[in-house]
Design brief:
mainly alpha; 434 Repressor (Amino-terminal Domain)
Amino acid sequence: MVKENQEGGELIHQHLGENLRKRRKSLKLTQESFAQRCGLHRTYVGAIERGERNITLSTLASIAAALQIQPQNLLKAPKS
């Protein structure tokens, strides 16, 4: 069973978004430059970072490759 946050969104989407944003910023990439790097649209990347999108495994793999990180690390609960 997938856990939901207080707003009703799935926690895994929130975890993915937060981890993606932290890693992207640590690499000093804008949403636009990151989106170009992995072949996505900037607004789609923003929606993923906000936890609003349910992405496919192939998109997760593309994002992870662009961030030079293992896909499973993007899905873990972020460290505070």
